[in-house]
Amino acid sequence: MSTISASKLLSVANENFVASYRKLVEHSPEGEVNQVGGVFAFVTGFPFALFNGCVVVERAAPPELEEALAWVTAHGVPHRVWLAEQAAQKLEAVPTAYGLGRDPASFPGMVLHPVPEPPPPAVGDGGVSRRTGSRLASPRRGRKRACSGAGEPDVSTVARH
User: Fold this and answer.
1) Helix, strand or coil for residue 96?
2) For 135, which DSSP code?
């Protein structure tokens, strides 16, 4: 197994992050992208901040982020800005000027290094129990129990819906 440098892993993670939003836009009827220098801006049209915004994972100047963020804002959808750590200090005043606040929980780059060993397979049934419908007096009673959450509904009762 070859070793990959931390900078290469970060680069690949960043490329993957941007590519995931490019693909999302590609499959969105109202999707658009706008590359402004080092800022990748995108809108999907979906009314969720996770699906619209700006991503900065390479060198970018504040005017580039301002232009990209103005473009996203003009679409009238909830949005957010992702700034790579190396760009955050230089650029964080721009999103703040647009009324965005810093989110203490950032999204991970989705790369594990070093890759951990997989957990051992589960032994036994893992505490899952299965019962048949024979306990029930009628299907109607079973539907009521499954919907109300009273008691422990059967697997077969829940499947009848």
Assistant:
1) helix
2) G
The 10 Å Cβ neighbour count of residue 94 is 25
Q: What tens digit of pLDDT does each residue of 46-66 get?
A: 999 989 999 999 899 999 999
DSSP state of 122: P
pLDDT value of position 4: 81
Cα 127 to Cα 17: distance, rounded to the nearest angstrom: 37
Helix locations, 27-154, DSSP H: 62-74, 85-91, 93-97, 139-148
What single DSSP character describes residue 25?
H
Residue 151 near residue 145, CB atoms below 8 Å:
yes
Q: Is residue 43 within 8 Å of residue 72, measured between CB atoms?
A: yes
Prior bond of 153 cis (ω within 30°): no
Q: Where are the domains of the chain?
A: 6-97, 129-161
Q: What pLDDT is recorded for position 118?
A: 76
First-last CA distance in the chain: 50
Q: How far apart are CA 161 and CA 154, in angstroms?
A: 12
What is the DSSP secondary structure assignment for residue 100, as one 8-state letter? Answer: -
